[in-house]
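hey m, so remember when u said the tokens were messed up on ur end? i reran from scratch. heres the input so u can diff it against urs
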Amino acid sequence: MINPNLEIAQVGKRILRQQAQSVTDITDKKLQQLIDTLLTIAIEANGVGIAAPQLSQSYRLFVVCSHPNPRYPDAPLMKPTIMINPRLLSHSQEIVKGWEGCLSVPGVRGLVPRYRTIKVEYLDRYGNLHQQELANFVARIFQHELDHLNGILFIDRVENQEDLVPSDLSK
């Protein structure tokens, strides 16, 4: 069960529409606590990612933690990965539509176009720089979470209203 003292920002909250600020001090104790909280919430909510602005924290920081679950049964299993000051370096020309939901937009799923493959760069929680190529579902998660850092929600990317459907995120 998600800690009831931690409020996930819901659509309509201003912070979800703002550009998050870069992390300048990775060793900051409060930042490290935020990282732990993001990891805990992602696991407890059975989510595949969560960004700091969703906890009303304006930092360029998110967790990607793909795993099979009722909403995404074919998701690949990966270790939860902290991504600080993430950047999209390049992307394929191929765009694919896939279903997305969001803890900040409860009760709705949408068919969202995203790049199939991307090259990204980010710092881990210890300040180590990583570059890697991501594909398919994990690339989708990264792009969804990066949008959160730029004040964009998945519902902004849906191409038409028929691509939005009701959803039960409690599964």
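this time it looks ok to me. The first strand starts at residue 49 and ends at 51. if urs says something different then somethings off w ur setup not the seq
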